Amino acid sequence: MITVPQKVTNFAHIIRTRRRALELTQAELAQRIGTSTPYVGYLEAAKRHPSQRVLGKLAAALSLDLRELFLLANPRVAAIAAPPVNQGIHGTPWNAFLKDARLRRAHRITDREIETLSRVATMGEVRSPRDFVYVLNVIRIALGR
């Protein structure tokens, strides 16, 4: 499995570059991952975001590391998973999130959602209170809310 070079941070660029290095056409790659040729073009032009299924197939077809490809395709996740910024006197992002009633009201965050986010907070530190809103929105989308 080939890892993504550290200096390359653009998902679309790495897909196009790796496809060309393997001397594959967009049509050949599309056939290997079970999508259309235009869809591969959209991925390479950064006009579409791949599903988890497509990411897995791309990683396999292009012999790329799936974890690194996932982080390239989802840079916001990489930012959340990064080491926390110096917290200073304000405490952790979780504590700041809990204290920010205005933010919670603006996003209509329920007690049940707070409970779910508290579990997310135990997984590791995030960079800012707003990252909890991002995580919540991803959960809401996944649940069709």
Short description:
By secondary structure, the protein is an all-alpha fold.
CATH class of the largest domain: Mainly Alpha
Task: Say what oligomer this is.
Answer: single chain
Roughly how many Å apart are the termini? 38 Å
Report the C-alpha radius of gyration, rounded: 19 Å
Indicate the CATH topology of the largest domain: 434 Repressor (Amino-terminal Domain)
The total of beta strands comes to 0
Structural class: mainly alpha
CATH superfamily of the largest domain: lambda repressor-like DNA-binding domains
Main sheet attributes: strand count, strand direction, barrel closure: none
User: Total number of helical segments?
Assistant: 10
Order of helices and strands: HHHHHHHHHH
Task: Quickly give the CATH architecture of the largest domain.
Answer: Orthogonal Bundle
**Proportion of residues in extended strands:** under 5%
Number of domains: 2
Q: What's the shape?
A: elongated
Unreliable residue stretches: 4-8, 86-90
Task: For this entry, give a set of tags.
145 residues; mainly alpha; 434 Repressor (Amino-terminal Domain); 2 domains; 63% helix; elongated
